[in-house]
Amino acid sequence: MEAICIPAPHFGRRRARWVSEDSYVRLEVRLPAPMVRELTILANAKGASIARVVTDELEHLVSDDRQHGPGEEN
């Protein structure tokens, strides 16, 4: 599998990372408690992990950006 570059963000890590395209990378985020509550309820209803639900939801956002370009309305 090909390696992809994850660029250095504005905050946190100061270097770009190269990872295998099929790997999973840990991302730590702080979310508002009501959002975590809703994500947990959704995950429980689906019988899935919160990580799986968040990955699915973010995939929709990322795929929309790929189709329409970041910052453009859908």
Characterise this structure:
45% of the residues lie in helices and 11% in strands. The protein is mostly helical. The radius of gyration is 15 Å and the shape is globular. The N and C termini lie far apart (32 Å). The model has no long low-confidence stretch (mean pLDDT 88).
Strand % is 5-15%
Number of beta strands: 2
Main sheet record = 2 strands, antiparallel
Helix residue percentage: 40-55%
Note the gap between the termini. Answer: 32 Å
Mean pLDDT over the full residue set: 88
Sheet with most strands: strand arrangement: 1-2
Radius of gyration, whole Å = 15 Å
Overall, the morphology is: globular
Q: What is the ordering of alpha helices and beta strands?
A: EEHH
Please give the structural blueprint.
Layout lengths: L2 E4 L10 E4 L12 H14 L3 H19 L6
Antiparallel strand pairs: 1-2
Helix pairs in contact: 1-2
Summarize the structure.
The chain is mainly alpha-helical. The chain is 45% helix and 11% strand.
Salient structural properties:
globular; 74 residues; two-stranded antiparallel ribbon
